[in-house]
Amino acid sequence: MITVYVFGNAPPPVHGVSRDLRILWALEECGLPYRLHPLDFARGELKSPDYTRIQPFGQIPALDDDGFELFESAAMVLYLAGKAGRLLPESPADRALAQQWAFAAVNTVEPPLVQLFAMDAFSADEAWAKERRPALVNQAEARLATLDAEFAKRPYVLGDAFSAPDILMSAVLRLIQDTPLLDSAPHVAAYKARCEGRPAWRKVFAEHQRRLAA
User: Fold this and answer.
1) What is the per-residue pLDDT across 10-60, written as a single tens digit (0 to 9) for each?
2) Average pLDDT of the chain to the nearest whole number
3) Which CATH number fits the domain 92-198, given the four candidates 3.30.1250.10, 1.10.3210.10, 1.20.1250.20, 1.20.1050.10?
4) Residue 113 contacts by C-beta under 8 Å, 6 or more apart in sequence?
5) pLDDT in tens, 158-185
6) Close Cβ partners of 206 (under 8 Å, ≥ 6 residues apart)
7) Which of 55, 101, 117, 172 can bridge 62 by disulfide, Cβ–Cβ 3.0-4.6 Å?
């Protein structure tokens, strides 16, 4: 049985965008059985020796698949897709393209978006944040313009079919859903809505909201 380490509680700004959602979404799409191990953020359980043995950086999420331990959301999503034989192409070349887009989501698109999110959520009134924000907005707009051109050509990152990197890309886009940035990228906005319309996402998100509201 796969055990997923998730937030048992978390600061309200990160509700709905935490990276454990990516793993739970992949598990639901792949039809793999799993159980949750919620950690108490407020009590410092993410930094406990028991958890940092699995996730040395003390971050959520991590997983334990009957003794095989893994962290980093992109690595986990790709692992689960490979384990289930779903959400990934079969040929080596096409699978490399899937990995390319998975890495693009977390290495190219996410950095300016997550910085903007953190700044707006936790430091919006700070002078340094007000000075830094316009440059991050420019970076985010550039990334979104590139994505908008891509999604004008096809519904998902690899073509007509939803795949593992779509979990990562659409999850990253949630970081700016409360800003006007998506207004100038209509194909990206439509892509995000298309991904979030999937039953697996809706189930995971509803359970996430209930868990963190408890």
Assistant:
1) 889 999 999 999 999 999 999 999 999 999 999 999 999 999 999 999 999
2) 97
3) 1.20.1050.10
4) 140, 143, 172, 173, 175, 176
5) 999 999 999 999 999 999 999 999 999 9
6) none
7) 55
Do residues 81 and 25 make contact, with C-beta atoms less than 8 angstroms apart? no
Cα atoms in the Cβ-side hemisphere of radius 13 Å centred on 39:
24
- Among 179, 180, 177, 192, residue whose Cα is nearest residue 147: 192
Report domain extents, the chain.
2-87+200-213, 92-198
- Say what the pTM is: 0.96
| CATH code for the structural domain at 2-87+200-213 | 3.40.30.10
Gyration radius (Cα) of the chain, Å: 17
Query: What token pair was written down for 50?
Result: 């028991």
